[in-house]
Each structure stands twice: as C-alpha cells, then as structure tokens.
C-alpha cells in the first residue's frame, strides 16, 4: 500500500513541478530565448498573426497569444488588467482616453526615442502618448469612421451617398420608399450605436478643438446648444423618422454587415477595421464587396470622415520586472516596426503608418474609398482624448429606448467624464 | 465527555469553514474596503473616500434603477421557477419509465452553461428567429421594454427549473402515504389534499427552493449579459450588469460599491425570508 502511495506522491510532485515550471516565462536555460505573453484582439487579421509567427521564427522567442474577444474588448482587457496580471505585450487602443485607463506612467514602459516614432509623422501628438511620453507602438492604420453604403441600392434609388446629416435625413424616406432599411444600426452589440453621433461631431472637432475643450473642462458635453447635444438630437430625429432598422435594439454588428452586402440596408455607420467582417458577410468574396459596397465620410454639415487610432496593431509593453522578457518584448516592437513591416503591409493590403513604407498594390476598392475619405481632411474622433467616455454606448441604448433625452444623456455622460478626469488627475478638474 | 462531543464536529466542518472563509468571507471583507475607496484604473493610489462611490452612482442615475431591476427580476424568477417546478414535480412525482425520461429532459438545461443558454435563447427569440416564425408574428421579445425583463426571467426559469423540480419531487416523496390516505378516507378531494396536506408538508423543500431561486436571481448576470446585455435601454440592467460596466470603464471603487450592494441585498432578503420560512415549517 505504501509503495503506490509514494509513487502517487512522486507523480503528483513531478506534475506540480512541471506545471509550475510552465508558469514561468523562461524557455530553455542559457539560450536567451523566452516566452512572451501577448494579449491580443481576437479580430487581429491573418497577416498580423503571421507577423507574430515570423517574429518567433526570427528571434527564437515564443509568443503565447491570449485572445481577448473583440466584442467587449475594452471591458475584458480592463478586467484582466485590474487583477494585476500583466502580459509582456499588450495590444490595446491608442487613444489617449484608452491609454489613461492603463495608468501608463505606473504600468507601461516608456518608448519615447524609439526609431519608429520619428517615421510616423505627427501620429503620436494625438495618440499613444501622455504628457509628452510615448507608450504605444502603432502599426495599424487608424480606424476611419464613416458610412459604408450599398452602391447598387443607391443607384437603383437614383441617389448619391450623403455627405452630411441633412442629406442623410433627406435620403431616408426615398430609401424607405424603395423598400430598404436606410441605416442599419446594431444596438445588440451596444458599441456601434455611438458611431453616428461621433461622425456628426467631426465638423466641430477640427484640430481636435472640441475634444480638447471637454478634456480640459473649458466646455462640458451638456452645455446648452453644445455640439454633443446637437449630435444626439440629430440621431434621435433620424430614429423618430424611421431611418433605422426595426430590430435596432437586438441586431448585432454582423447582422448589419450582412444587411449591407445583401442590399437589405442602404448604409451602415462603421469603421475601417470592420472590413474583414464585411468580407465575411459576403462569404469571403472580395469581388462582391467591391461591386456592392462603398465608403464615405460625413459630419453634421461637411463631408468629413472621423478617425481614431485603433487597437489592431497597437502595442504596449507593460512593466514586468523581468529583464530578459522586457528585452525580448522590445525586440518584438522593433521587429513589428522594422524592415518586416513592409511585408506586413503588402500581405495585409492595408495602408502604412510609416512614411518610408509604400502603399500596397491591389488594394480593394472599398479600402481605397476609406483612404480617400481619410486623406481629404479626416478629423480625429472627439472622444479620443476624453477619459470616461466608455458610457456613451450605454447611454445611446437609453436614448434609443426613449428613456433619456439628448440633454439628460449629455448631463449623465459629463458626470462620468468628471469621475474619470478627476481620477486621472487631469489639469482643470 | 460533553466537551469532547461539543468539538467532535470540528474536523468534519473544518474544510467547509476554510472554504467559506477563503472564498466568501475574505473576498467580502476585502470588497467592503474597496467599496469605500477611490480605486480606479487611472491611478495607483487607493484612498478611503467614504460614500463618494455611492453618491456618484446615485448622481449618474445608475443605482436606484439597478436595485429596482434586480429586485423585480429576482421576484419574477422566484415566482416563475417555483410555480413551474412545483407543477412539474406534481406531474412527474411517480417513478415510471416515462416520467424518468421527462425528468431527465427537464433537468438537461441545468447542465448547460448559463451564457450558452442565453445565446441559444437570444437566437430563438430574435425578431426573425424560430419562435416568431412558429407563432407567425414579428416581436422583438428581448428588445421590447415591456417584455424584456419577463422574458429573461423565463429563460432563467427554463435553465434552473429542472433542479428545483427534483427538490420538490424529493419533498413530495417524503410525505407519508398514510397521511394522504387518511385525508382521502376523511373525504378530502385532490385540491384539499394538496392545500391541507401536501403543501404544508413541502415546507422544507419550499424554504430551500424559494431561498435558492431568490438569492440566485439577486446575483444575476450571465443570462442577462448573454441575452440583452442590460437593454433595451436600462430595462434589464441589474446590479451585476452595472458592476461589470463600471469595472470595464476602470471605476473599480464604484464597481465594488455595487458588489457590496448586491451582498447587502442578499443578506437583507435571505436572512428574514429563511427565518420566516423555517418558522413556518415548525408552526405550519
């Protein structure tokens, strides 16, 4: 009886030792190779995942991917982050508001001075940096927000895609008369319903003027006649005029992509990182997407697109205190922003953020539309620098349900901004 | 001898005491501290801030609605689950091959993850889903403010009724047959037998089931998150849903305050309820 017990004890001990050794990060001793944990967005496209594999091959380090679902990405990341768990590399939003919520000075490594920053133009003036210190390595082209529209539906209705909210409102009854849903909104996914009000505000946010005014507390969202209240009011009017789908509350963003591709809906307000979802809705047929879908920017009065640096391909290096892993993770950033970057751009057929890397060939027509909208004076999303704006989507749900009017929603959101701004210790609060 | 008897239970209870202390009491006490703190993701320092988190939640119209939704949801879940389960238990009480099949069928949803159950029902209840196709109507069951909370409570009932039914069946089978036969001999009809004999004798099962369903629903999150995400508007935004949203925005102190509120609500509801039901078991 004793022998089996001893054997069992030894086996358990060995298993425990093995599992504990697996918890550590170091790979075979003396090789200088380590295991890096990378929390990444589940929507990372295949070419980006391929880059991770190329880094492994080139460096000999191992990357353990921890996938964070793109639905609820911010909440899930924050939840993991709050436990004190830290990856070696974090893929996350480059917006200042997203960065502030990570408490960068305390938790992230300062990448100021890295070579890629000088090659990125003025990108880091609006993103990935706080108090003059750069924490992000942005490799993904900014998310460009605007209206995807179905070309065939617009042609059949004898309309051109709207370039401002007045034209959008005017197109609604004509599109409804043609038997299609003018704008497909997906409240079941919660976050997409905040896009239209953000688009509306592009006109007021040139040079990020409105966002800076709110972040510095020189204006509030709830000021009488504020652009924000006007944006919510315009949205509420579109809803009252029947511009949206009947299942606005329950529909998911995948439904919106499908409705757009099939021509059941004329327009969807979304951003450019949703192109893979659009392609998936078309059964992976790029030709169908190119033939049927176009993209335009619009704001309250002008044809302006909105952009925000997105999470896909934006990397941070959390402080871990492990010198070998910290060196390897910095190598990762240098790899992603180094010579291999051009290969990634070619493979992904997306646009580069570095001036010395040429645009790829064979870009889809809808992505060309996106680039055109970006190049013709796109404005940074007004909420990029404002902490505490995470509640906007929830408040939009209440606005859609008729529980809150625009002014009340603005007042409530201002309270959340105040809560976050004070916590972040922003000047002016 | 007396002393030995008094402590004889200790070794048996010790594992349970340790588990409850580590996984319930300690987190609860730690959470109480954070509920009154300035803990956020925006800065490292955590300081005592009194009732500031509660004030913030009230100012932002979050707390009162969340408490109302949670209590309403809990009452609905408790009422639906106990009504459905008691009816099922009465129908399936006798052990037979066919009843065993039905008992297993009704128990199956208990084994499904609540999130999976929520996603399944969200698909079935979609405006273009199977339920509407079968009924030949177009209704956003989970998107209409008038039906969303009740529908989610029904989904929760579907998920858990199998388990509650088994407890009622066990309770029914523990009633002495002689009592029922005596009542029949005395001329009691089936309704009178149920009202005067069966229901009072089911008191222990009722205590357990009412307490479990009510307390479980006060802590609701998963089914709501999978079906409505708290919508439409804030019509199904229970305390734990708001807690998750606050947490996701980095307001950990406010989230802890909401967690503490759930605990208080459970204690304030469960303790008097169980006390009253236990008393009813003795006097009833």
Helix and strand arrangement:
The complex is a heterodimer of chains A (429) and B (284).
Chain A: H1 2-23, E1 35-41, H2 46-59, E2 62-68, H3 73-82, E3 89-91, H4 96-100, H5 104-107, H6 115-118, H7 123-126, E4 129-130, E5 133-134, E6 136-138, E7 143-150, H8 151-157, H9 165-177, E8 181-183, H10 195-200, H11 209-215, H12 227-240, H13 253-262, E9 265-271, H14 275-281, H15 286-292, E10 293-296, E11 306-308, E12 314-316, H16 323-337, H17 340-348, H18 365-375, E13 379-380, H19 392-400, H20 406-424
Parallel strand pairs in A: 1-2, 1-3, 8-9, 11-13
Antiparallel strand pairs in A: 3-12, 4-5, 6-12, 7-9, 7-10, 7-11
Helix pairs in contact in A: 2-17, 12-20, 19-20
Chain B: H1 2-7, H2 10-35, H3 52-59, H4 63-92, H5 97-111, H6 114-124, H7 130-135, H8 148-173, H9 177-185, H10 190-201, H11 203-218, H12 222-227, H13 239-248, H14 252-283
Helix pairs in contact in B: 2-14, 3-14, 4-8, 4-11, 4-13, 5-8, 8-11, 9-10, 11-14, 13-14
Largest sheet features of chain A: 6 strands, mixed
The helix/strand class of chain A is: alpha/beta
Calculate Rg of chain A over CA atoms.
23 Å
Largest interface (CB within 8 Å) is between:
A-B, 41 and 35 residues
The tally of beta strands of chain A, per DSSP, is 13
User: What oligomeric assembly is this protein in?
Assistant: heterodimer
Proportion of residues in β-strands of chain A: 5-15%
User: What is the number of strand segments of chain B?
Assistant: 0
The separation of the N and C termini of chain B measures: 37 Å
Q: Give the N-to-C terminal Cα separation of chain A.
A: 71 Å
Instruction: Tell me the overall shape of chain A.
Output: globular
Largest sheet of chain B: none
Nearest-integer average pLDDT of chain A: 90
**Helix content bin of chain B:** over 70%
Radius of gyration of chain B: 23 Å
The arrangement of helices and strands of chain B along the chain is HHHHHHHHHHHHHH
* Share of residues in helices of chain A: 40-55%
Count of alpha and pi helical runs of chain A: 20
**Form type of chain B:** globular
Task: Report the mean per-residue pLDDT of chain B as an integer.
Answer: 92
């Amino acid at each position: 009886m004793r022998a089996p017990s001893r054997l069992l004890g030894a086996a358990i001990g060995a298993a425990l030792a093995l599992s504990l050794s697996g918890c550590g990060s170091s790979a075979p001793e003396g090789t200088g190779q380590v295991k890096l944990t990378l929390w990444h967005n589940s929507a990372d496209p295949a070419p980006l995942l391929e880059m991770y594999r190329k880094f492994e091959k080139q460096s000999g380090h191992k990357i353990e991917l921890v996938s964070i679902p793109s639905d609820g990405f911010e909440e899930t990341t924050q939840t993991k982050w709050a436990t004190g768990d830290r990856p070696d590399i974090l893929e996350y939003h480059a917006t200042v508001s997203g960065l502030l919520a990570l408490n960068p000075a305390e938790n992230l490594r300062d990448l100021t001075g890295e070579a890629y920053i000088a090659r990125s133009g003025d990108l880091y003036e609006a993103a990935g940096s706080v108090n003059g210190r750069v924490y992000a390595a942005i490799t993904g082209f900014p998310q460009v927000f605007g209206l995807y529209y179905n070309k065939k539906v617009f042609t059949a209705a004898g309309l051109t895609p709207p370039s401002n909210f007045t034209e959008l409102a005017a197109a609604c009854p004509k599109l409804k008369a043609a038997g299609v849903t003018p704008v497909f909104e997906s409240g079941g996914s919660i976050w997409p319903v905040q896009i239209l009000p953000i688009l509306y505000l592009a006109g007021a946010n040139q040079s990020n003027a409105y966002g800076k005014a709110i972040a510095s507390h020189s204006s509030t969202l709830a000021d009488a006649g504020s652009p924000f209240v006007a944006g919510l009011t315009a949205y509420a009017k579109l809803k009252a005029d029947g511009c949206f789908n009947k299942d606005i509350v329950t529909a998911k963003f995948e439904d919106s992509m499908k409705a757009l591709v099939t021509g059941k809906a004329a327009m969807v307000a979304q951003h450019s990182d949703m192109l893979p979802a659009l392609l998936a809705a078309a059964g992976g047929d790029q030709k169908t997407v190119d033939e049927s879908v176009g993209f335009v920017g619009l704001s309250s009065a002008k044809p302006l697109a909105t952009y925000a640096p997105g999470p896909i391909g934006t990397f941070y290096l959390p402080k871990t205190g492990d010198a070998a892993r910290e060196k390897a993770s910095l190598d990762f950033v240098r790899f992603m922003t180094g010579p291999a970057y051009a290969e990634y751009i070619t493979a992904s057929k997306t646009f580069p953020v570095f001036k010395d890397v040429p645009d790829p060939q064979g870009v889809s027509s809808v992505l060309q539309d996106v680039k055109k909208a970006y190049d013709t004076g796109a404005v940074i999303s007004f909420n990029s620098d404002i902490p505490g704006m995470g509640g906007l989507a929830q408040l939009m749900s209440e606005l859609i349900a008729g529980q809150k009017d625009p002014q009340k929603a603005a007042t409530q959101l201002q309270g959340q901004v105040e809560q976050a701004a004070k916590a972040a210790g922003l000047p002016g609060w | 001898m007396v002393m030995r008897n008094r402590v004889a239970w200790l070794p048996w209870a010790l594992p349970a005491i340790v588990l409850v202390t580590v996984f319930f009491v300690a987190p609860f006490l730690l959470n109480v501290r954070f509920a009154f703190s300035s803990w956020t993701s925006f800065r490292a320092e955590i300081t005592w801030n009194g009732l500031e988190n509660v004030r913030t939640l009230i100012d932002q119209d979050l707390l009162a609605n969340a408490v109302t939704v949670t209590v309403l949801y809990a009452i609905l879940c408790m009422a639906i689950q106990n009504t459905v389960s008691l009816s099922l238990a009465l129908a399936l009480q006798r052990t037979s091959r066919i009843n065993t099949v039905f008992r297993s069928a009704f128990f199956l949803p208990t084994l499904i993850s609540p999130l999976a159950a929520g996603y399944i029902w969200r698909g079935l209840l979609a405006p273009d889903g199977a339920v509407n196709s079968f009924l030949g109507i177009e209704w956003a069951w989970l998107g209409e403010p008038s039906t969303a909370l009740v529908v989610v409570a029904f989904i929760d009932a579907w998920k858990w009724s199998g388990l509650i039914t088994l407890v009622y069946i066990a309770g029914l089978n523990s009633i002495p047959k002689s009592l029922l036969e005596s009542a029949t001999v005395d001329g009691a009809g089936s309704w009178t037998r149920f009202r005067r004999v069966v229901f009072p004798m089911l008191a222990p099962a009722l205590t357990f089931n009412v307490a479990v369903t009510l307390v479980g629903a006060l802590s609701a999150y998963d089914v709501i998150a999978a079906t409505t995400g708290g919508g439409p508007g804030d019509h199904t935004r229970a305390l734990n849903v708001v807690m998750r949203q606050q947490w996701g925005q980095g307001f950990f102190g406010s989230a802890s305050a909401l967690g503490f509120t759930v605990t208080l609500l459970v204690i304030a509801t469960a303790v008097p309820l169980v006390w009253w039901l236990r008393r009813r078991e003795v006097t009833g």
